[in-house]
Design goal:
Helix content is 68%, strand content 0%. The chain has helices spanning 13-33, 40-70, 76-100, 104-124, 139-149, 155-161. 21% of the residues are buried. The structure holds fe (ii) ion. Fe (ii) ion is lined by residues 64, 79, 83, 121, 125-126.
Amino acid sequence: MLNWSEKFETGNAVIDSQHRMFISYVNRLEELSRSRNPVKEEVELFFRFMDFLEDYMAIHFAEEENCMLHHQCGAYKENLIAHNEFLDFFKVFKHQIEIEGYRLESVRELYDACVAWIQRHILRLDVQLKPCRTPYDEPGELANEVQSGSDAITFLEYFANQAGPRPRVD
Ligand SMILES: [Fe+2]
C-alpha cells in the first residue's frame, strides 16, 4: 500500500488533496488484487473502477496543468507530456484487460505500475510547483482553491452521475 508522505506536497491545497485521493484510489487496486476468488460483482466493480480512474486522472491532470501554467512553472511542458504518456499507458492496459479478461495478476501489475509512476512523477515534476508560489501566505487564494477543489469528483459521485451527465470538471 502506498502511503501519503509530506515529501509529495506541492504546496497547493487542491493538487495535494487530489493526490491524496488518487493514492487512496490506487490502493483500492491492491485490495482488489488480494481477492482470491472474485465474484461477478467484484469483476464488474473493477471495470467500472477503471473507467472512474481514467476520468479522475484526466480531471486531475488537467487541473494540475492549468495550475502550473497559471504559475508559470518550468515543469509545465514535461508534466503535460508525462500525463499524456501515462494516460495512454492506462488506456492500453485497460483495453488489454478487457480483451484478455479479468485476472488478479493484471490488477496487481497495474497497481505496481501506478504506484511506481505516482511516486516518481510527483517527486520529480509535481513538486516543482512548490517554489513557484507561496499559497499558504495568501489565505484568500488558498480558500478559493479549496473551494474549487470541492468540485473534484469522488468514486461515489461518479457512480451516481453515470446515468446522467458527466461529472463536472471545472
Ligand atoms: Fe503531474
